[in-house]
Amino acid sequence: MRRNLSCYPLTWHLMDILEAAFSKIWPKKGGFWGPYLMLSPAILLVGLLVLGLAYIGDTSLRTLDTSTFLFSEEWSLANYERALTEPFIRSVIWRSILGATIVTMTTLLLAFPYTYIMVRTRSAFLRKFLLIALFLPFFIGQVVRAYGWLIILGKQGIVNDILGLIGIEPLRMLFNYPSVLFGLVQYMFPFAVLMLAPALTAIPEEIEAAAESLGASWQETMLYVILPMAKSGLIGAGLVVLTLSLTDFAMPAILGGGTQDFVANAIYDQFFRTSDQGFGSSLAVLLIAIGSLLVWIIFMLVGAGTLALGAKDK
Amino acid sequence: MTFDKQIKRRDLLKTSAMLGIAGAAGSVAPSLLKAEPAKPKEIIVRAWGGPWVEALKAGVSDPFTTKTGIKVRHDLTEDNEIQPKVWAAVAQKRTPPIHINWDTTTNATKSALRGVCEDLSDLPNLKGTTDLAKPVGVDGYPIVNTYGYVYVLAYRPSAFPSGPPASYHDLLDPKFKGRLAFYNDGIGFHFPAQVAGGGKLDGIPNNMQPCWDFVSKIKTQEPLLGEDPDFVTWFQNGEIDAACTISTNALGAKRNGVDIAWTIPKEGAKFDTDGLWIPKGHSEGDLYWSREYINHALSKESQQIWLDGLGLPGVIPGLRPPPGLAGDPSYPTKPADFDRLIRISGKIQVENESEWFSKFKAIMQG
Amino acid sequence: MNQPVAQKLFFWILIVISIITLSAPTLVVLGASLTSGNIIVFPPDGLSLKWYKALVEKQELQDAFIRSIWVAIICVLISLPAGTLAGIALVKYRLRKGALIQTYLLLPFTIPLIGSGIGLMLVFGEVGILGSLWPVGVATAVINLPFMIWAVSSSATGLDPDLELAAQSCGAGPVQTFFYVTLPSVMPGIITGSLLMFILSLNEFLVSLLLVDARIVTLPVQVYNSIRSIITPDLAAVSVVFIAVAMLAIAILDKIVGLEIFLKSK
What we know:
The structure holds three protein chains of three kinds.
Chain A: H1 10-25, H2 34-60, E1 64-65, E2 70-71, H3 78-85, H4 87-120, H5 124-135, H6 141-153, H7 158-165, H8 177-201, H9 205-213, H10 218-229, H11 231-246, H12 250-255, H13 263-273, H14 277-302
Antiparallel strand pairs in A: 1-2
Chain B: H1 2-32, E1 42-46, H2 51-68, E2 71-75, H3 79-91, E3 100-104, H4 105-114, E4 144-155, E5 180-183, H5 190-196, H6 209-219, E6 224-226, H7 228-236, E7 242-246, H8 247-255, E8 261-263, E9 269-277, H9 284-297, H10 300-310, E10 341-342, H11 346-365
Parallel strand pairs in B: 1-2, 1-3, 5-6, 5-7, 9-10
Antiparallel strand pairs in B: 3-9, 4-7, 4-8, 4-9
Helix pairs in contact in B: 1-2, 1-10, 2-10, 4-11, 5-6, 6-11, 7-8
Chain C: H1 5-33, H2 50-57, H3 59-92, H4 98-105, H5 107-110, H6 113-127, H7 134-156, H8 161-169, H9 174-203, H10 206-211, H11 219-229, H12 233-256
Helix pairs in contact in C: 1-12, 2-12, 3-7, 3-9, 7-9, 8-9
């Protein structure tokens, strides 16, 4: 036994100090409060958003006086009434929910094969190539990417040029609902792949071989073996794509030509154009409520999957 | 090309203007030695980017820096997007993020009604301005209008072989389906649409049904809706044949080589102004020098250079129009030029904007 | 491989379409930045590097770029501890009201960015910290936090509780166990999450728009503001520079840990 304490490495001393401090904060027996303590920094950070929400909620209850552009002193539900009854707003809300759902299903459908190949391929080069192709678009940002599509799909763009070679008149492929959905899908695609990848990696290849040896065709293997095992990844990816496309602002604005407003665009208009922050706030609150409700329902039904904000429930 | 000539002329003007100002400053130097408030390190002016801020720099900001030594930093945030930031700053009693807002008069009117603008009535150079500088519908000068512009009917001449469209009704021709563009809140179009729909201008704002009827007709043409940069892009990429937009966008596209022209149809065109204002909450020194900046912007030399870049008529009498724009309908100077232009008070516009906005969107997207 | 032709064909067609869709805008932006004309067209109107030369002169774009990097670094520094702790906690422990907490922690996604932006602007304004750059870092950390939590927790599902027990039976206290056993196991998730947070924060423009002023403007905000006025090829050039830096970062990351880390759960 060494008698001289200074002979121990520095890190050991450091650890001892930390352990002593830690045992003061961490409740005895780990117990009930431990995990909540670990969650507290994240909860506090999101709490900043909640504080902001409080302001927005407060503003949503005030109506605008257009002769002074100040907000009413008293609270009223007038903004919410207007949001729920005005036909334009209702069509915008419906358009957003429908669009988000279609985008989610399409993205998952397209992301699955991409992820599958990326995970299963034996060629490291191919895997790296697919990963890089996935990541690069991130760095251009949503807005510039959307403008890139305006150029490609425009009346004088490349696609129309190619179509022209086979004698088709230039088509208007932009500024409509499908183009907005397309823009959202290509933007959400990398997110979906990233969320699916860990789940697919966790499925051992031997399972597929086993299924085949039991006589399953590749479609059956896909449907009955892989898909269920990838469920957690699909749910995680689906949740992310659903919430992000429901609340997206840039794609409907740029690819929609001003005629395909989603709720976020309507909120933008109210905050920035008509300066009716009260009405804009009420729309924001409605959107958050709809989004959170959808998310919560999915959580209750199927668990959070690889958004794995959840304990292992395999 | 005309554009190159523009640059050389502007350089010449810039140099001579600066010499002129330097000379004037030299003669005025002794009086500047009187006690003047502390100079801020820099003044932040909100401006629209691209050719707009370049014109402002050449005409106002750079000469101001030369004269006073105060640097001017330009904030390129959109006028719409800076508004809640400024309002929040004033409401929370913080220093606003900008010293001077180069804003549309309609937007500025909202801020004025809310009471967040400093009073500018006693600026010395206001004496030399025309009536156009006074904002309509608010008391005094919380904003100073600095120039006007027309919402013209811009069009591609190749799409109109028999000459410029004489009326908005010409745009209802089926061959223009999907080839028209308007601002996404309908701005600039409401008033001529009122006339096109068979109504009268004094029906604004109380009886605008003719306007909405005509807008519904235009909707069948599936127009594109966007903002300033979109119009330029759409014309450049050949997506549209006609648009109701401000003349500067058409001019900008033309200077970039796009084949484009503009006209005022028989229903008329909306005329509006842009101006400068200072949000409340700045220190005494900052406020003093911000006012000096605006004062400077109202001088004849500044207006000449600034507005040459924009191709728009100013508020100082006797300005020389840029080449090619003299007598152009988008450059009204004489009273007769204003006959077919529609000018509605800022206050009325601001009060009804929200409603007009929703109605337009509801018709277009419904 | 023992896969039937039909399956291979089916998958490969889908993948080729995906790659084209992912890369097409990048190529267009690259091409448009090399144009010798004044407007954005593709294919470009003659080739020229003049727009890149213009970038070298624009000091404000370079300043904005440095600021964006700074904001991204702060974002990672803040989200790393918060996200890691939360991610591990959510997986290790079975929590009461788990669904509620998860919905709460997904708020950054369910709240539209405009709402978050305005809300944070008001909160930071009240406290008086607007005008510095670090609140922007905090804001980008908050709105992208679920990504960090996700990355760590999907790594943590591979945590072997036996390892921790073994460590403790060797005499390690909870802190030591955490640093020497738990953290290394979730390291892939931490790295994935950090990179993702860095990228997302670097490109964030909507919330930043509301939190910056002209003195501290970040690059995506500057680009966005410019696009609202007029779209010129120098914006394409800026985007290409961004991508070049990104490729560099990805190459470095690959050298250090290998890109495959994004695919792994452990």
